[in-house]
Design goal:
Organism: Paenibacillus mangrovi
InterPro entries: YycH, YycH/YycI_2
Distance between the termini: 93 Å
Number of helices: 8
Strand content: 35-45%
Number of strands: 24
Largest sheet: 9 strands, antiparallel
Protein name: YycH family regulatory protein
Low-confidence stretches: 18-44
Length: 425
């Protein structure tokens, strides 16, 4: 009996020693390095869902050329847009040849040849397009960024043509082998025959609808991520952050290295990490993937977004994710920041991260509105032309924060050559 009590006492001492060792290693302040990597952030629950980069890569518009000077436009998430884009993503393109842009009469092709012209804003790296389209690897243009894909038929030609335009502006790549027949292209073009007619302006810089365009005005119920949630997500140790109240009313939280600035009246945040360590060589594609991963881990996606980017080939690269409601983008304005996420990266590391803290809920009220078209719209555009040439025209939403939620008002967004955006409601 005495020996059994000694054995039991020894067992209790061993167990107690193990428990004490566990707490010493895993629970003492500063012991996080034993359980997780130095640069890992804390994962925050109950925020936006994650997203795959493939779902962020799609054209901002699809211009349908029907021949005889007739055109129309399909925008993201519309029925024919989704149908055509889904089909094209399943077709292969290979055997590329480099051509000069100056050797083609583009206005003639637009007006006379049936085809589909897809635009990708400021451009997408070929390596990213290969994630959503069957583009065979080709050393000739694998380092390019593509801002336009144009697939069309020509008279008395038994095969379809597919052109990929470089953001450099003077180069276009033609696929020698296209997994599309002339009949395939014509079938896609025919979807536009009963759609709103558009007239090409100038050298195809933009298209003017010949009649008013229907859009939905929306009043949305919203919620807001808290400062505590963003702190928990963005700082290695939220407990050591210091609070600073700025004269303009903005709030700043900092751990002496990183800072989080919050403008409560606009529900907008800006995070900076100037001490982000360099990760060596970088590229457009690596930075895009790094940006998507960063948003996935720090706030998530509160809606549908499309990739846009600038600053390619520079040390500091900016990547923008444009938010959509239905088929149209939401404008980010000086008076109310909403509708975009902006990230700046240096050698693959995020140094700046800006986004709205607002997320939309299921409750919403919709009202049909009409945007002007034809001569009425043309007259208003002529007034802007006095300031700077119009280079693009597209339907968009102007956001307004109200006491009960978020109001999205339909407008024409007018992009000028000087970079300014004007609106027509």
């Amino acid at each position: 009996m005495k020996e059994r009590m000694k054995s039991l006492l020894l067992l209790l001492l061993v167990v107690g020693s193990l428990v004490q060792s566990y707490y010493l290693i895993y629970r003492l302040p500063g012991s996080d390095t034993a359980t997780k990597a130095m640069n890992s952030y804390i994962k925050t629950d109950n925020m936006g869902p994650q997203e795959k980069v493939e779902n962020l890569l799609f054209p901002d518009k699809m211009v349908i050329h029907m021949g005889e000077g007739k055109h129309t436009i399909f925008y993201p998430n519309s029925t024919f847009y989704k149908l055509i884009y889904t089909r094209l993503k399943g077709r292969s393109f290979e055997g590329f040849q480099r051509r000069s842009v100056e050797n083609m009469d583009w206005n003639k092709i637009r007006n006379e040849n049936p085809g589909i012209e897809m635009t990708f804003g400021s451009g997408v790296p070929v390596s990213m397009l290969q994630r959503v389209m069957q583009i065979q690897p080709d050393s000739l243009f694998e380092a390019e960024r593509i801002n336009r894909i144009w697939i069309y038929n020509t008279p008395n030609d038994s095969k379809a043509h597919a052109l990929f335009f470089s953001t450099e502006g003077d180069v276009v790549y033609e696929a020698g082998k296209v997994d599309l027949t002339v009949q395939d292209v014509q079938q896609h073009v025919d979807f536009g025959k009963q759609w709103t007619p558009y007239a090409m302006q100038g050298d195809g810089a933009y298209y003017l609808p010949e009649k008013p365009v229907d859009m939905v005005e929306a009043d949305l119920e919203i919620g807001s991520y808290t400062v505590a949630q963003m702190q928990q997500s963005l700082f290695f140790d939220p407990g050591i952050t210091r609070y600073i109240q700025e004269k303009d009313g903005s709030e700043i939280y900092t751990d002496t290295k990183r800072s989080l600035q919050v403008r409560q009246e606009q529900k907008w945040m800006s995070y900076t990490d100037p001490a982000a360590p360099p990760a060596g060589e970088s590229s457009d594609s690596k930075d895009i993937l790094a940006a998507v991963d960063f948003v996935n881990e720090h706030g998530g996606w509160n809606g549908v977004y499309r990739l846009d980017m600038s600053g390619a080939g520079t040390e500091q690269r900016q990547i923008i994710f444009q938010q959509y409601y239905g088929s149209y983008p939401i404008l980010d304005t000086m008076s109310f920041h909403y509708g975009t996420m902006k990230l700046e990266l240096q050698q693959g590391n995020v140094t700046t991260y800006e986004r709205s803290l607002i997320y939309t809920k299921t409750g919403q009220k919709k009202t049909m509105k009409k945007l002007p078209g034809g001569e009425e719209l043309k007259a208003q555009l002529m007034a802007f032309e006095k300031e700077s040439p119009v280079v693009d025209l597209y339907p968009a939403y102007l956001p307004e924060l109200e006491t009960k939620g978020l109001k999205l008002t339909p407008v024409w967004a007018v992009k000028l050559a000087n970079g300014q955006i004007r609106t027509i409601s």
